[in-house]
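I'll show a record.
***
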Amino acid sequence: MESLSPSNPQIEESSSTREKREQILRGAMQVFLSQGYAGTSMDRAAAAAGVSKQTIYSHFQDKEGLFTALIERVTINRMQFDFCAEAMHGEPAVLLRRLANTFLQKMTDEEYLALLRVVIAESVRFPELAQLYTRTVIQRAQHSLSVYFKSHLELGIEDPEAIARIFWGSLVSFLVSQEILYGKLVMPMEKERFITNLVELVLSHTQS
């Protein structure tokens, strides 16, 4: 009996490539989280992933490319719809509460927090890592919300960019202070209480 072959070999190859990249990222994540950025070598990443060093180079070019892919995997991929311009619609109070809840829910899992700790710890020696995080997470989210404010003139927000920055900056500050700086033990605050007051504060800049 004639064996069935894939109708489109390119699709199979693409799927295989995605699986290999994911295998590398899983292994590399372990090394970055345990050794930090500076202490991670391509040899260690390759050993943890169970692949050759050349295989990593063929997929990610260098260590910066590998770490960039990790940030994309942990941050951009999980938020690309929730915080993109297309998702910015609806009544302002409902939208802002949804964005805040989504951000704090998705960004408080252990994998994300561990990666953020690496970015912060290495920010002095490797400022490009912190800049990468700022561009891929904070800047994208702020820009989308700023565009939303600008398109809703009825809100009467004079400086949409600043208000969008205040909103997201407050969320990042809450995340870092509570989850990374152990604020949950020193000065705990319920997430819902924080979100409610943040939304009210932002909307207080709108016209009545």
Summary: The radius of gyration is 21 Å. Residues 68 and 132 are 8 Å apart (CA to CA). The longest helix spans residues 9-35. The chain has two domains: 9-61, 79-203.
